[in-house]
Amino acid sequence: MSQHETPLFTGLKEHAKRNPYQFHIPGHKKGQGMDPEFRDFIGENALSIDLINIAPLDDLHQPKGMIKKAQDLAAQAFGADHTFFSVQGTSGAIMTMIMSVVSPGDKIIVPRNVHKSIMTAIVFSGATPVFIHPEIDRDLGISHGITPQSVKRALEQNPDAKAVLVINPTYYGISANLSEIVDIAHSYHVPVLVDEAHGVLIHFHDKMPLSAMQAGADMAATSVHKLGGSLTGSSILNIKEGLVSAKRVQTILSMLTTTSTSYILLASLDTARKRLATEGYSIIEKTIKLANEAREKINQIPLLYCVGEEILGKEATYDLDPTKLLISVKDLGITGYDAEVWLREENNIEVELSDLYNILCLITTADHEKNIMVLVQALKKMAEHFGKNPGGKPVQPLPVHVPDIPVLALSPRDAFYADTESIPFEESAGRIIAEFLMVYPPGIPIFIPGEIITQENLNYVKETIEAGLPVQGPEDPDLKMIKVIKEHIAIR
Ligand SMILES: Cc1ncc(COP(=O)(O)O)c(C=O)c1O
Known about the structure:
Helix content: 25-40%
Oligomer: single chain
Number of helices: 15
Bound molecules: pyridoxal-5'-phosphate
Number of strands: 20
């Protein structure tokens, strides 16, 4: 089959055209049985392919027909031996990837700054995480990835680990030397699993970091929906056989996936793959050019800094995806969140994320010159607005501080399922936390179950909340109370 073909999307369209009398789910039957306002808004075409796994349409749980063909084409495009489609986002693909290689009690080497789906899979599987400290960038106040040397040290101390997990590239577009990490792990016969949520484009252009499959990794969960043009919630899991088994992956994927798989999401994966495989290079080339032009212009604005190739050359900053515009606003004396709100309220601009010191703007294959101009003009206005004090005094840059990573006292699973109690957040220093606490986006936990709460980390959480950033995870959304492991006092 050729990469210009879309067996799944084409098969669905042909099925819809035959217009069969439907006596099956979904009950709206091409939209006829649903609220007319919604039906008219979504449109007939989309609703005609909102179908489920009836025999002619194959089944994601045991693909043999059009889904299998579409997955095979995706495997070819991404340089994998097998590709599995996910209708449960990259979170679903990540959980499958991890749960197909670890059993209860097994060790898995992971960076501490992982997405919550990774920690969720660790809790559910009962695996024990061996954490690697990510490299901290104290200028930007962010974490990068892990280094080959730290992976080597982790494997020397834990040669019995069942997998090494790498985030490549990070949310901010920075990657480590993945090939070297793969070589090190493979010398111990340990598979490398890659969280490639932010790297669907990198496989299709040589000015991008190496993709997981190019670097020889064993599995990669790749968000086609984030940047590759498929619909939200659709993603893929690529695998190279050898150290991991495709059959096991299919079994676990099926265990974790709804039986009502969305064919609209699946079809969007099929067509996104076609576009990336057939036109990817040229559209990504254009995107990189636009992003580099934007970067250059932003760096001419006083007190703003847009990260570029100058940060490369260290072990954790081996390569970068230039389409991510990570903009440090701290020299304006404001937080990233202040900048996010100002851009929203004054310029109708929505950024991808903000943190205490930065905003992240994504330039994608959808962008063009006009969008770049709008962003640059808004950033200029923002710098003028915040960049001068009434008395003409220079603004004070925000000091950057990144808290230490808390110490893990119990396995996340033991802590999550332990006997717990809720205590006031303010009084929790020294106790072992039993729930997750994170800022979303990016969804990286500040605390994971089993870690010892420190005053420094509590202060960081308070600072984050005061800055307006969305702290999520605890059962008490107001964070007045926090769940910790119950302490048992000796009976007299
Ligand atoms: C690094 C990373 N991994 C995994 C995910 C999960 O992706 P999804 O939202 O598709 O489930 C995200 C989402 O933001 C992420 O940032």
